[in-house]
Write a structure and sequence with these properties.
Length: 319
């Protein structure tokens, strides 16, 4: 059982009030008591008149038993607690039963309901679609006991705004529209997406070809949206600056940012019209990366035209 925290200054004030106004009924301690919460109070154990109940009925005796269990508070323990709180003199002469059986009538907060509220909040406020989220909710560190099961949970926005990775949410437990308590709930949120991966081991300085990549569902929790690719066309023709393992996600960190075509390079120009293709030669007038449109020069006619970079040796022109 957890040791109850007592405010001795407060109880000293209560004793002064009691001494100043002795007109109260004699308390009667019970042999059996019921609690619906986390603590056993003096008001649970004894019948007190309204004035006395208001003044010291909330005095904490001990932690309440879990639902379905029974605690036995002995006469010696009760005397010890009354003395510890400074109330022994006031209860002098009041008969104490040999023991008081204390039963818990409250119910445990449903872990399933906590997890459901956590998942719903993360899904509704996450920038990623719910189908891409894998949400794990950790059990509460301590059991939460409620007066009854008629409660609602409301998740509050996290201070960090973080809803991916390690996520911590604070929830308010409401009963009849009133706040009973606040609890902290932790979990882990992972994001999965269809992303471009390598089909085989690829080495640094290799140029990525169509057969080198495939789209697979992978965990991208630790990656920013601009670091991975969702279409093979985004990486085909690019040069690698580091090795990539088979089925590994190809990220922007794997790709060289050096241009694949430099000014003055002679390249193959693929002219495309109505499904027909004709190849010719051209000279790059500026550097280019795959997918970028660059200016080229026809070495025979000396006329400039534009084309889209395919790889280090090829530029496509659609007529």
């Amino acid at each position: 059982m957890r040791k109850c925290r007592l405010n001795f200054w407060l109880w000293g004030l209560i004793l002064l009030l009691l001494a100043a106004d002795p007109a109260h009924g004699t308390p009667v301690f019970k042999s059996e008591a019921q609690v619906a919460g986390e603590y056993i109070t003096l008001g649970h154990l004894a019948d007190l008149d309204p004035e006395l109940q208001q003044k010291c009925g909330a005095a904490l005796i001990w932690s309440a038993p879990p639902p379905g269990q029974l605690y036995t508070l002995t006469q010696e323990f009760l005397k010890f607690r009354l003395a510890q709180m400074g109330l022994a003199g006031f209860f002098e002469g009041v008969p104490l039963p040999p023991a008081i059986q204390v039963r818990q009538t409250g119910v445990l907060l449903s872990g399933e309901e906590v997890a459901k509220t956590f998942r719903r909040y993360v899904q509704e406020h996450n920038p990623y679609p719910a189908a891409n989220l894998l949400i794990e909710v950790f059990p509460l560190e301590e059991a939460v006991i409620l007066p009854d099961a008629q409660v609602t949970l409301e998740a509050l926005p996290p201070r960090s705004g973080k809803l991916v990775g390690d996520v911590n949410l604070e929830m308010v437990v409401l009963h009849g529209g009133q706040t009973l308590k606040r609890i902290k709930v932790s979990g882990k949120v992972r994001v999965e997406r269809q992303v471009v991966c390598a089909t085989r081991p690829l080495k640094s300085q290799e140029i990525i070809g169509p057969g080198d990549v495939q789209v697979l569902r992978r965990d991208v929790t630790g990656l920013n949206a601009g670091e991975f690719f969702i279409s093979p066309d985004q990486v085909i023709g690019r040069t690698l600056c580091r090795n990539v393992g088979p089925q590994e996600i190809i990220t922007s960190r794997h790709l060289s940012h050096q241009p694949v075509i430099k000014r003055g390079d002679e390249v193959t120009v693929v002219l495309e019209q109505d499904g027909l293709e004709i190849s010719t030669k051209g000279v790059a007038q500026e550097q280019g990366h795959p997918g970028k449109t660059i200016r080229l020069l026809n070495p025979k006619s000396k006329k400039e035209f534009q084309g889209s970079v395919i790889d280090a040796k090829t530029v496509r022109v659609k007529l």
